[in-house]
Amino acid sequence: MKLSSFLPAAAVLAALSVSVASSTRKEFSVSAARRLNYKPDYWKQVCKMNARYENLRFHEEECAVYLKQRASKGVTLSVSANGTIGDEPALDDGSDSEYYGAIQIGTPGQRFLVDFDTGSSDIWIDSISCGTSSCMSHARFNESRSSTFQKDGRLWNITYGDQSSAAGRLGSDIVNVSGIAVRQTIALATSETGFADTPSDGMFGLGFNGNEVVPGVQTFMSNAIQQNKLELPVVSVYLPSQRRAKGAVGQYLFGAIDHTLYTGNLTYVPVNGTAWWQVQFDDFRFNGTSLGFNSTGIVDTGTSLIYVGDEAAKALHSLIPRAMNSVPGPVEFRLGGKDFAVPYLDIPFARVSEGSEYCVSSIQGGQNGFWIVGDSFIKNTYCVFDHSTPPRLGLAPLKY
Ligand SMILES: *[C@@H]1O[C@H](CO)[C@@H](O)[C@H](O)[C@H]1NC(C)=O
Ligand SMILES: *[C@@H]1O[C@H](CO)[C@@H](O)[C@H](O)[C@H]1NC(C)=O
Ligand SMILES: *[C@@H]1O[C@H](CO)[C@@H](O)[C@H](O)[C@H]1NC(C)=O
Ligand SMILES: *[C@@H]1O[C@H](CO)[C@@H](O)[C@H](O)[C@H]1NC(C)=O
Ligand SMILES: *[C@@H]1O[C@H](CO)[C@@H](O)[C@H](O)[C@H]1NC(C)=O
Ligand SMILES: *[C@@H]1O[C@H](CO)[C@@H](O)[C@H](O)[C@H]1NC(C)=O
Ligand SMILES: *[C@@H]1O[C@H](CO)[C@@H](O)[C@H](O)[C@H]1NC(C)=O
Ligand SMILES: *[C@@H]1O[C@H](CO)[C@@H](O)[C@H](O)[C@H]1NC(C)=O
């Protein structure tokens, strides 16, 4: 998923590094930088979800208004805060909204910052032939500078809920993630709008085969596993929160699990559904007590917030008092018999608008029967996206 705001490029964190653990052991890691000074646009994020997940529609009326006005300040299910939440300042910047890391495409490699996204299955970047201002603000791929580029020519396009979109053609080249290099079909955008203000040059799908825009294009992970490039068929995701680990750099670790980043043992849950990293959430708890909800849902690095059913969201927020000088306890998601917590201080996500005493809640409704659990959860839980047969998801509390 991509996010937008009106952020000058200079305010973007430039500290990116890539480390190769050991090529003989087939482990590779990409650092995930957090976008700093990000001013979230709540409705933009919410409305984008409608197009991101076809067949899923929520907040449709509000989104219609948003798309018309592009400036809606309305909010439902917000957690109120007035700037002091416990002993910590409210989150009003660096809201753990978007993470990105560097990859290379072509020979010699051209470098791109991409948003690694377990909720989609395509890789796309801008083509040098795209001249829109949005394209010009990003790294663009020049195919004639790559000796390994092969034309494909099939049309490709995608539209997001905030009406940003990209379109172009498929091509094939060597995609190199921190030393794992595979020939890969990618999409090259020759037109796109609405991406000017995001630091990512494109998207890198970590979803499954079958969920791609053009049917039959194999994912990077599927190619890497088939070509025996990885020690373990996994991507392990560590996206530490700004609040709890100031300055810590996140990590997407391909082919291995970093056991130093979590506490206790990993709990593995089966993945069902073939399109997404879909798992069964057995319970939804607040402050140690079940709220009586369960659902199937997905764990999605490309979504910032957590979207549960309307009733579940309502039940939770009815328990959260307006005054926030005490810390009543975490929200927990039960998976595989274990509870994984989103601490109370992470529930207010960001101010609804600058200076507002209201914060958008990290936990939203709208997803009846199909929860979408994004970075607000992942920044507290180490997640191992395991492509074994059958696939499974490993979870453990992040070590802070
Ligand atoms: C793309 O690369 C070719 C070959 O190096 C070069 O001639 C051309 O100017 C480049 N295109 C742009 C727009 O930079
Ligand atoms: C969008 O992509 C689809 C294939 O996924 C293609 O059929 C359609 O023509 C494309 N549209 C544009 C405007 O490129
Ligand atoms: C892949 O990228 C790494 C740096 O991350 C570089 O050392 C290596 O030579 C590249 N491999 C290929 C085949 O481009
Ligand atoms: C982790 O698993 C090992 C082996 O099953 C067990 O001995 C240990 O107690 C577990 N640790 C925790 C914290 O659950
Ligand atoms: C997913 O698996 C769980 C447990 O294996 C099962 O209870 C649930 O009904 C399944 N959901 C779907 C949508 O297949
Ligand atoms: C899940 O919730 C439904 C009601 O929505 C309930 O009937 C069912 O027993 C619950 N399942 C579990 C495993 O708690
Ligand atoms: C925030 O609310 C608390 C409790 O209601 C109050 O004590 C505090 O003075 C308020 N802070 C500001 C900055 O308004
Ligand atoms: C949270 O749980 C503690 C201990 O059980 C209890 O004292 C407190 O009132 C609870 N807070 C809320 C808001 O439910």
Global shape: globular
Number of strands: 29
Task: Please indicate the count of domains.
Answer: 2
The average pLDDT value, as a whole number, equals 76
Widest beta sheet: strand line-up: 6-7-13-8-12-11
Question: Span between N and C termini?
Answer: 26 Å
Tell me the helix content. Answer: 10-25%
CATH class descriptor name of the largest domain: Mainly Beta
Q: Tell me the β content.
A: 35-45%
> Structural class, from helix and strand content?
mainly beta
Low-confidence spans? 1-25, 35-39, 68-94
CATH T-level fold name of the largest domain: Cathepsin D, subunit A, domain 1
- The CATH fourth-level homologous superfamily of the largest domain: Acid Proteases
- Main β-sheet description: 6 strands, mixed, barrel
Q: Specify Rg, calculated over alpha carbons.
A: 20 Å
SS element count, helices: 6
Explain this structure to me?
The structure is a single chain. It is built from six helices and 29 strands. It folds into two domains: 42-96 and 233-397, Beta Barrel (Cathepsin D, subunit A, domain 1); 97-226, Beta Barrel (Cathepsin D, subunit A, domain 1), CATH 2.40.70. It has helices at 42-52, 60-69, 133-136, 220-226, 310-317, 375-378, and strands spanning 18-22, 27-34, 79-80, 84-85, 88-89, 99-105, 110-117, 123-127, 140-141, 150-159, 165-177, 180-193, 202-205, 234-238, 250-254, 267-270, 278-281, 283-286, 289-290, 295-299, 306-307, 331-335, 338-342, 348-351, 358-361, 363-364, 371-373, 381-386, 392-397. Helix 1 packs across helix 2. The chain has 400 residues and is mainly β. Strands 6-7-13-8-12-11 form a six-stranded mixed beta barrel. A five-stranded mixed beta sheet has the order 17-20-27-21-26. 11% of the residues lie in helices and 37% in strands. A hairpin with a 2-residue loop joins strand 22 (331-335) and strand 23 (338-342). It binds 2-acetamido-2-deoxy-beta-D-glucopyranose (8 copies). One 2-acetamido-2-deoxy-beta-D-glucopyranose binds next to loops.
